[in-house]
Amino acid sequence: MPFPGGLGRIWECPSASMSLSTVQSILQPNSAPGYDGFFSYDMNIDLKRENNGNYTTAMDYPQMPKMTTFMHPTATVFMFDCVFDPATEVVNGSPQYNSVNPANRQNSFAARHSQGGCINFFDGHVDYFKTAYIQSNPSSNGESEPLLPDVIWDPPYRAANP
């Protein structure tokens, strides 16, 4: 898999692939997405959301939520399979950014495993979900988080909107 300097395979899904022509089109020094590497697993970017009413503001560093504040660790997303190839995994309106961010949310959930992917939850268990399910039933706030009973992306938003 391409990686700056040709190093390592850490945090890489064995099923994630990208054609050389796609890599070359997005791997341009100091400018284009992909310059800093490619990610096939991402962390949940909404874990640092503030409970401020609109649920779109991130906590400032070094302020972080404590794991004990997550009310539902069996449903709270920690890491997940994210979209990778912008040519073959088009699940949102910005596929040119597939694989270039180490943290994302449900709109960048993978589709390379039979139109789905795996989620690692805070209690340590992993489960497989279809992309259509993860992106279904979007809410009108909290970064459009789907109000699913078994998957929570933004804990403060979901605490206020179960």
Query: What is the count of β-strands?
Result: 5
List the domain count as a whole number. Answer: 1
Strand content: 5-15%
Q: Specify the helix fraction band.
A: 10-25%
| Order of SSEs | HEEEEEHH
Mean pLDDT: 82
Radius of gyration: 16 Å
Write out the strand line-up for the largest beta sheet, numbering strands in chain order.
Answer: 3-1-2-4-5
Q: How many DSSP helices? A: 3
Uncertain regions: pLDDT < 50 for 5+ in a row? none
* First-residue to last-residue Cα separation: 40 Å
The biggest beta sheet is recorded as: 5 strands, mixed
> Shape from CA axes?
globular
Alpha-beta content class: alpha+beta
Task: Please write out the topology.
Layout (H helix, E strand, L loop, with lengths): L19 H7 L14 E4 L32 E5 L21 E2 L11 E6 L4 E5 H4 L20 H6 L2
Parallel strand pairs: 1-3
Antiparallel strand pairs: 1-2, 2-4, 4-5
